[in-house]
Amino acid sequence: MRTDPFREFDRLAQQVFGSDNRPAAMPMDAYRSGDDFVVHFDLPGVDPETIDLDVERNVLNVHAERRSPAPEGAEMIAAERPTGVFSRQLFLGDTLDADRVDASYDAGVLTLRIPVAEKAKPRKIQVVGGTGRHQLNR
To answer: Could you tell me which CATH class the domain 22-137 is placed in?
Structure first.
């Protein structure tokens, strides 16, 4: 089994200095359900007020922060749960309607529903010619 020395160094630095040098990625699942693209992000222990979502040029940015539950000045005996800023970017294709993103947060999971754009949905095209009209499924 190989170990990543940089990852081990980051872990050691976090233990010594109590912070991470970069935002942590949040685990996610994504799938298409009907006319929606659905994404679930694991964010346990995050206050919904710290979740920030924005879309710029078809890039969805998700930021959240988990703060330590210990009062300031308390002596930490064990600090195994990650705290700090979590960040993730999703590149949304032209087939998704980035103007109609719906977000909800429940039981530590942030759920985004992004509708498929109307222009990307299958539609019928009518062909006129010959002896009659025919429809082609597209």
So the answer is: mainly beta
